[in-house]
Amino acid sequence: MNAITNTLEIIGKYPVIPVYYHEDKDTCINVLKASYAGGIRVFEFTNRGEYAPENFKAMLEYRNAHFPDLKLGIGTIKTVAQADQYISIGADFIVSPIVKEDIAKLAFSNGLLWVPGCMTPTEINFAEELGASLVKLFPGDTLGPGFLKAIKPLFPGLKFMPTGGVDVNKENIDSWLNAGVTALGFGSKLFQAPQDATDFNWLTERCVALLKLVNKG
């Protein structure tokens, strides 16, 4: 089994994907630990701040030492230079908010899964032509499950994952599952801490609950 197929298989088994960025390295590692304790096995860190490369490197080092079965990828990749930087650091997969041919080629030449962000059938078709097997529907809350239901029959060979505004409640998750998603990317709504939180146990519990919802109990 090649690395791309392996990553897709793990996403299928563990379809709750946290999408996260923080400037503090220790916070990043604590969030990674809490997510893993809650059953998360695929985690997307985003390239959204000046500390992203060094924090991602620290998270990878921690993963390598403690969670070898966790897939740790990088998101918000918009240029081939960014993709090259994070591939050199050791990213397991590349997620983009856009569709770019040079990023696709670089990811595939390194044997890595590339997940492009799409908003229209034309973009989805272009991503498929470039070799994408999993497409990120972005922004998820703008497009909605109805969009996926309408376009999914046009792309029977593709898998889909909404990201951006995906809510953690059962109703929202069920509507996406019924539309036919393979996985769900959870950003800010996953990481809203309770007011009385003193550690990250709430995040572990939330991940456990989400995996139960997405895997239907």
From TrEMBL:
Which pathway, per its entry?
Carbohydrate acid metabolism
Instruction: Give the organism the record lists.
Output: Pedobacter panaciterrae
* Pfam families, A to Z: Aldolase (PF01081)
Give the SUPFAM superfamilies listed for this entry: Aldolase
User: What is the name of the protein in this document?
Assistant: Bifunctional 4-hydroxy-2-oxoglutarate aldolase/2-dehydro-3-deoxy-phosphogluconate aldolase
Checking PANTHER family in the record gives: 2-DEHYDRO-3-DEOXY-6-PHOSPHOGALACTONATE ALDOLASE-RELATED (PTHR30246:SF1), 2-KETO-3-DEOXY-6-PHOSPHOGLUCONATE ALDOLASE (PTHR30246)
Please give the InterPro entries that the UniProt record associates with this protein. Answer: Aldlse_KDPG_KHG, Aldolase_TIM
Question: Which family does the record claim for this protein?
Answer: Belongs to the KHG/KDPG aldolase family.
What are the entry keywords?
A: Carbohydrate metabolism, Lyase
Q: Give the quaternary structure.
A: Homotrimer.
